[in-house]
Design goal:
Length: 235
């Protein structure tokens, strides 16, 4: 049924969002002495959304947003040494181990002999390249693509470059906004494998997903049996 099966990376192949949540908690503790009102996290999120068009996705943009948030919520009172601590948070994020989700290696090993596999991720080029290298998974993929964003237009450009027919393209990922809906809009197929936590920006309202035909699996280890069922039904 499929010429190509593509996988998202962050929170589909390895843990990622939990690292951002842990760092946000560290930022909250750092700023607590300066705050006159409870921290909600919305302060940082608002700055991130404002900065996406300038800094894009990834740790570097997140760090600049943390620094800007710290300056704003403390009304400029935060000292330079604590700005330095925020930068150190970023260094620790960028050097943290890449922890694969359960079953990922086995699934890729199972599928690689029968399918052309691709890795399609978005974010900062250096950050994503180093994560892919540290994951040990790069050799499993015939092609790796790092995009600044995932939209129908960027998927279409990628499929055109790779001479892939959308109807024979399957995308596997955890984000409805980035991995599922843009591919379905092109006539491709998609499998949603939810992660236990999702960044607010990647969430979509239930009505946005209604009317779209996609498959949801609870675990990536269910993918090979699902593909086998599709193949059997095609015979």
């Amino acid at each position: 049924m499929f010429d190509v099966i593509a996988f998202d990376a962050d929170d589909t192949l390895w843990h990622n969002e939990t690292l951002y949540e842990q760092t946000q908690e560290r930022l909250q503790r750092l700023l607590a002495p300066y705050l006159s009102r409870p921290w909600t996290g919305q302060e940082l999120y608002a700055v991130e959304m404002r900065n996406l068009r300038y800094f894009g996705y990834g740790v570097k943009g997140f760090t600049l947003s943390m620094i800007e948030t710290a300056i704003e919520v403390t009304e400029g009172r935060i000292p330079g040494r604590e700005i330095g601590q925020i930068i150190e948070f970023a260094r620790e994020m960028l050097s943290s181990p890449v922890e694969l989700l359960d079953g990922v290696e086995e699934v890729l090993e199972t599928l690689a002999p029968s399918y052309r596999l691709m890795l399609i991720t978005k974010g900062d080029l250096f950050d994503q390249e180093t994560k892919i290298a540290r994951s040990g998974l790069a050799e499993r993929f015939a092609h790796v693509e790092i995009l600044s964003d995932k939209t129908s237009a960027t998927y279409q450009a990628l499929l055109t470059r790779q001479r892939i027919t959308p109807q024979r393209f399957l995308m596997v990922g955890n984000s409805m906004r980035s991995d599922i809906l843009p591919v379905l809009a092109l006539g491709g197929q998609a499998i949603h494998i939810p992660y236990h936590t999702t960044w607010l920006h990647e969430q979509v309202a239930s009505h946005e997903a209604e009317g779209h035909s996609y498959t949801e699996l609870a675990d990536i280890r269910q993918l090979p049996p699902w593909l086998a069922e599709q193949h059997a039904a095609e015979q």
